[in-house]
Amino acid sequence: MSAGAPAAQARPFAALLAHALPGEPAWLAALRSRGRARFETLGLPGPGDEDWRQTNVRPLAGIPFALAGAAEASAADLSGPGIASALPVRFVLVNGRFDAGLSTRDGLAAGVSVSDLATALRTAPSEIEPHLGRIAPIDEAPFAALNTATFVDGALVRLGENVVSSEPIHILHLTVGSGAPAAVSSRTLVLAAPGSSAVVVETFAGSGSGPALTNAVTEIVLGAHARIEHVKVQAEPEETWHIGALAGHVARGGCLRSHNVSLGARLARNDIGARLDGEGAECVLYGLYLADGAQHVDNHTWLDHAKPHCPSWEVYKGVLAGRARAVFNGRIVVREGAQKTDAKQSNKNLILSEGATVHTRPQLEIHANDVKCTHGATIGRLDAAALFYLRSRGIGEAAARDLLIHAFADDILAKIPAAAVREALASALYGRLERDLAVRP
Amino acid sequence: MLKIESLRAAVHGTEILKGIDLSVRAGEVHAIMGPNGSGKSTLAQVLAGRESYEVTGGTVTLDGKDLLGMPPEDRAREGLFLAFQYPVEIPGVTNIYFLKAALNAIRKHRGEPEMDAIDFLAYVRERMKLVEMDESFLNRSVNEGFSGGEKKRNEIFQMAVLDPKLAILDETDSGLDIDALKIVAAGVNAMRAPDRAIVVVTHYQRLLDYIVPDRVHVLADGRIVRSGDRSLALELEKKGYAWLEEGVAG
Asked: What are the sequence ranges of the domains in chain B?
């Protein structure tokens, strides 16, 4: 480290790491210590770290973040990308803490529970202990380690055996700024017992002012033949740094489908993936990212094919304008013995300006010989021939551009489960496309 | 209706059209024939407003309005329609959405109210019959996965929906088998009207057996070298284009 580095960089987030909750079980205290130790060892990643070469989070070290305190949020703060009002079940975390006043859990089916993690850690620690911190790679990922050391509360979703949740379960993570730099460690754990099924929506939004660091970790454990559709919508303000991890563990015949929609934040980094750990386990990863101005969006996905006969399917699409930078890194690991793996990966980028850039990279590690793995990436502009074709029929230039951009994004949007979520998201997405991204030549 | 005077156009600095003069009156069907590379498709694209062609001289008016100063969408709104030689595939945009957006843009320009979804569907169903298109095409992405013949039929279908003053058909016959050619020709013939002009651009006279033109023009090396009635097309069929090109060179 250079001699002129600010003091904070020597031990970034020292103020955050001093944190501990009273009365926690010993296993959790040990887990937190491990997270703290790993973070202090790994430090803030820099350009020398293979996984962070294109994404610079070093400026975080110079911002005196403190753990965001409890804050008042109002119903107006819920509007976010319009999803909160669209869904009857709503579990709200304000600055990482459960807000009972803003939450409604009336529509939950029998056998489905959504609880705040702080309470559940006291009342049902034995259900949590086997899973918390064991799905996300906290020993390798510095931010997941930091989150583990510092989360104060979160959401715990439990689905009983063969229970099907009829309503999507919406977890809204709100960061309310007070002007001073605030860090929020959001934690979510989803435990889907064998044969259960649900749609889980996590929305990240913010209000107030000041720089914020949202550091979210979601772990999803799917029992045999369980099915989870996870929708992540990140629509945070432009002063926010968003670092989010989603890690799934899928048992035999289970299926995790992730829909990752990234709209906001100045810098967003997602690490999303799953370990397919039983025959016939399946994972589908869809992603859609929109960025303009000086926004930076980085999606690192991973699929760990640990057992034979597991299919995975992945499509990430991005629309970029201004001087936005996008990073896509798609890692697929096929373990020894994971024969008949069938993995398909695709990343497509639409660039609307001269200044936008994309770094895309597949990363395949295959240790079995009877597998199918395909990948492809494209970076392109709006098709001039298609634009002319539309205009030659009387459609104005701006409308023609919008039509083509929507068409590009629509197939990802169309996959989002639950019509209410899809429709709310479509209007948020189109609003943003038309307001910010459909830059005119 | 259409008046082209001394039109010159270049692509990447190479002049393709070297002074075209052509007048087409309402109610007429004109055929423009010519060998490959003579500038037929360039003319069609320049009239529709393709930006990759640079107009280097001349004028074009449609009912007295200057076409060359208009962007492509305004030309379409003023009643020009180009049936593309190579219709473009647009994944993710359905035919019906595309056509409704186009028709309503044109109607708005004319000061007519937009058509709602129900009226539009009824109108479109009726127009589909002209080219014997199956209704399932409406909800498919524009031209995506269409066969060559289906794409050409879709062009004529769009023309029938948009009801242009002036339709330019650019090699609509290429890639069609005889049955598809007959269907397309019947669709075009059904669109013949006293207040509409049609310009058929083709390499072969075959199409003109089915769409009988009032006038035939031969384009060679960027100029119209001969004009005549239908018999000129039959003469070309017999003699080929070589004698005309020699005439130009000499």
From this structure: 2-249
- Residue extents of the structural domains in chain A: 16-437
Band (pLDDT 50/70/90 cuts) for residue A1 is very low
Q: In a 3-state reduction of DSSP, which class is residue B27?
A: coil
Q: Which residues of B sit within 8 Å Cβ distance of A?
A: 48-52, 71-73, 75-77, 81-82, 84, 87-93, 98-99, 101-103, 105-106, 109, 141-142, 158, 162
Q: How far is CA A283 from CA A259, A274, A275, A299, in A?
A: 11, 7, 9, 16
Tens digits of per-residue pLDDT, A254-294? 999 999 999 999 999 999 999 999 999 999 999 999 999 99
Question: In the predicted model, is pLDDT for residue A208 greater than 90?
Answer: no
Q: Which two tokens stand for residue A40?
A: 């202090």
pLDDT at A10 over 70: no
CATH number among 3.40.50.300, 3.90.180.10, 3.40.50.970, 3.40.640.10, domain B2-249: 3.40.50.300
